[in-house]
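Translate structure to sequence.
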């Protein structure tokens, strides 16, 4: 059985290491949707729950801005923890090995979709 998909945005909305697109996903054990985001890094799209691995705050330092000034890492707006854009792994800071939680996204025919499980 194929997982249901939900449109997030047009592919053109995501530029390399640029602003991300926010959306919401359901999480097991939660009655309200969780914030999530999708970014483009090295030509691929990646999606994550919008929650720091250290404390439960959203990452973007301005609406949809997830990359640090070097455009090499995703950064937590609260304390500057850095995450690998391709894996969500903690690279520096108080996240202490706790990375970002990925969400399944796919890019196809000019659009980016969330694959619901």
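Result:
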């Amino acid at each position: 059985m194929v997982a249901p998909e939900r449109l997030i945005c047009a592919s053109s909305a995501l530029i390399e290491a640029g602003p991300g697109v926010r959306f919401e996903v359901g999480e097991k054990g939660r009655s309200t949707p969780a914030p999530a985001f999708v970014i483009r890094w090295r030509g691929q799209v990646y999606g994550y729950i919008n929650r720091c691995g250290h404390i439960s705050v959203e990452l973007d330092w301005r609406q949809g801005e997830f990359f640090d000034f070097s455009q090499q890492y995703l950064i937590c707006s609260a304390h500057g923890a850095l995450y690998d854009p391709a894996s969500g792994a903690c690279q520096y800071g108080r996240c202490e090995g706790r990375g970002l939680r990925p969400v399944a996204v796919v890019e196809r025919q000019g659009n980016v979709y969330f694959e619901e499980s």
